[in-house]
Write the structure tokens for this entry.
Amino acid sequence: MSASAKLPPFDAADPLGIDDLLEPEDLAIRDTVRDWAADRVLPYVADWYEKGELPGIRDLARELGALGALGMSLTGYGCAGASAVQYGLACLELEAADSGIRSLVSVQGSLAMYAIHRFGSEEQKRQWLPRMAAGEVIGCFGLTEPDHGSDPASMRTHAKRDGDDWVLSGRKMWITNGSVAGVAVVWAQTEEGIRGFVVPTDSPGFSAPEIKHKWSLRASVTSELVLDGVRLPGSAVLPEVTGLRGPLSCLSHARYGIVWGAMGAARSSFEAALDYARSREQFGRPIGGFQLTQAKLADMAVELHKGILLAHHLGRRMDAGRLRPEQVSFGKLNNVREAIEICRTARTILGANGISLEYPVMRHATNLESVLTYEGTVEMHQLVLGKALTGLDAFR
Ligand SMILES: Cc1cc2nc3c(=O)[nH]c(=O)nc-3n(C[C@H](O)[C@H](O)[C@H](O)COP(=O)(O)OP(=O)(O)OC[C@H]3O[C@@H](n4cnc5c(N)ncnc54)[C@H](O)[C@@H]3O)c2cc1C
């Protein structure tokens, strides 16, 4: 028997054997989320995307809650207490269906719930987290403003003390889940610096008009938040943080999920291209038999599985409490950028069919344009890494 006969067979779905890194429970969680997405999202998402809506978002949220996918890596208060790797695997499977569904879960768990879990009072945690973990209440996270995106320190939304109360005024822009949220975590300038506020969305003066005419993340609710003198009790402020450190640490957690999620969109596009290359014939043979197509597929597979390996590595560091924000920037920068490249190359392999919604490729590619920009643009993550490498701050 030759040495190679003892080796496990080559698996096109896992050419590096990365699954060997996973425990049986990790695989079970991954399969559960994959099956849910195959049943509840994949048959419908092209239609949602075409119509620019996410109907049944409240039912989807409850089902995701029942799966344990909301606030998945948080502990207590009805949260699943999963590992960072398990949370990442769920993000990958959800984004393989659509970035909009992964965004719903990221904003709920890694932004809104994470902010309350990490910086909230015991009363805030008890009031909101169990219902958010169950998907009964949807949350949103308001940081970006019409005139202040990459530079949130300059935000204009402000909160003023009025007796024991706070009064919030300002506008937030591009807020995922905004119009369907029952609670908004809103960041605002105060005399003490930037503070976070837990805002019930039925508060007088709060409104969240939906943003339409998007060509990306169409199966996702994106909204403006208008805060017109919203009066909140003194207890609405997140007591445990002051300054930009608050929102930035939430973003770091959400970006970590994107490192995995982007590879889900890339995997779906790669699989569509591979399948197509095997069956589509031109010049009397499958196009996958041409060297130029094989070069594309090989390069896509290399970037896809390098990206997944990187996500695993960062997940293990997060589970060990050793993941630095610069390392998250490294992962987000690489994986989203490479995921878009994989989608674009997949699109070429599908030829004209590549632009059709019958295939997932173009939908993923346009979704990833948002993913490239939100949670820190490519340039912001280059600046984070550039600063860490040189010790020189080039942000301003
Ligand atoms: C679909 C979608 C959903 C979103 N969801 C949310 C959400 O839930 N909550 C939320 O708070 N925000 C959300 N955002 C907003 C997102 O985080 C911002 O769009 C992002 O931070 C960039 O801000 P901006 O669009 O204002 O771009 P800008 O900051 O105006 O940047 C424009 C360009 O200038 C570049 N640039 C800026 N400064 C520099 C510099 N110093 N050096 C080099 N280049 C620079 C940027 O990299 C970018 O290429 C969402 C966005 C989208 C598209």
Q: What stands out?
A: Residues 139-236 form a domain with the Butyryl-CoA Dehydrogenase, subunit A; domain 2 fold (CATH 2.40.110.10). Residues 245-279 form the longest helix (35 residues). The chain has a mean pLDDT of 97.
